[in-house]
Amino acid sequence: MPRWFNVAGPCAPERNYMVAVTRRLPRVRRLIEQQPTSSSTRRVRSARRPHSSRSRELTAEGRFTAALLSLEVGAAFPEDTGAAELAILDAWRGAARARLPDELQPPPWPESAPGRRLGAALQAWSRASSRPLVLFLDEIDALAGEVLISVLRQLRDGYPSRPGDFPWALALVGLRDVRDYKVSQGDSRRVLGTASPFNIKDRSLTLRNFTPEEVAELYAQHTTDTGQSFTPEAWARAFELTQGQPWLVNALGKAGHPPRQPRRAPPRGASAADHRPDPRRGGAAAGLCRRPPLCPGSRAGPGAVVW
């Protein structure tokens, strides 16, 4: 199956060109071994969900049950903690079915009162799991208000019960550190301002951008698969334009190499990195110019993940 440059959703090594996430977050493995609840950050619009590949790697090793789960669906119920919990648990069930083998599936979620459902579900899963449970909880900063506070308090409440009755390690993945989580929807000035009510985090990490060598490595994977080479000038120009921001690096690669490229196409030079398809034709690089905060030359602000 041919691989391609991915700009939408999690990457899969069998389908997409990838750079190993462990190289960009070298401390993650050590933190997992230490049973942390810590905070780390990822860059805005990486669009590659590196923690999805990290969880797959951990599960495949045979020691942990690891999964990337989303909290985003709970944001649709900002004033109803119980409804937000039910939506989140239903999404978790679907994600587990898609990403974990049958023997590692969570048990039926237990009945519990609103404001306790997530904690009770995590306790039940930890007890039933044959391996220590490691979870990456994505889109935590999509939540706000009482729903956010409830989720943080439930995670904090279960912390002393690890590892037998609560996950071995948790990562809250988002675009902000926990101190900057919004207390209320639509008001960016009102933030927690402190790690409490979640004062059990170990540390904050930043998922760095690609280095020039990693940009070259990513594009070299396309050369291996298609026979089409990039010149060193093209690698350098791509890094200059994107500063290694993963979504931009992949968008440039995708724009310069549309699907069904002939196998023996000529090498791509530095001018290919400057190519901007007509926005009316929906080219990937055209999207770069429609997103001013992420255009080449601007900085992609740090985001946040929590362990």
Describe the structure.
This protein is an alpha/beta fold. The protein has two domains: 187 residues, Rossmann fold; 83 residues, Helicase, Ruva Protein, domain 3 (Orthogonal Bundle). Helix content is 36%, strand content 9%. Strand 3, helix 6 and strand 4 form a beta-alpha-beta unit.
The whole-number mean of residue pLDDT values reads 77
CATH class of the largest domain: Alpha Beta
Task: Name the CATH superfamily assignment of the largest domain.
Answer: P-loop containing nucleotide triphosphate hydrolases
* Contiguous uncertain segments of 5+ residues: 40-48, 260-264, 276-307
Just name the CATH architecture of the largest domain.
3-Layer(aba) Sandwich
Percent helix, as a range, is 25-40%
Number of domains: 2
Order of helices and strands: HHEHEHHEHEEHHHHHE
Query: How would you describe the shape?
Result: elongated
Q: What is the CA-atom radius of gyration, in angstroms?
A: 21 Å
Biggest sheet architecture? 6 strands, mixed
Distance between the termini: 35 Å
CATH topology type of the largest domain: Rossmann fold
The total count of strands amounts to 6
Class computed from helices, strands and strand pairing:
alpha/beta
Strand content: 5-15%
**Total DSSP helices:** 11
List the defining traits of the structure above:
single chain; 307 residues; alpha/beta; Rossmann fold; Helicase, Ruva Protein, domain 3; six-stranded mixed β-sheet; 11 helices; 6 strands; 36% helix; elongated; disordered C terminus
Brief sketch in words of this structure:
This protein has eleven helices and six strands. With 307 residues, it is an alpha/beta fold.
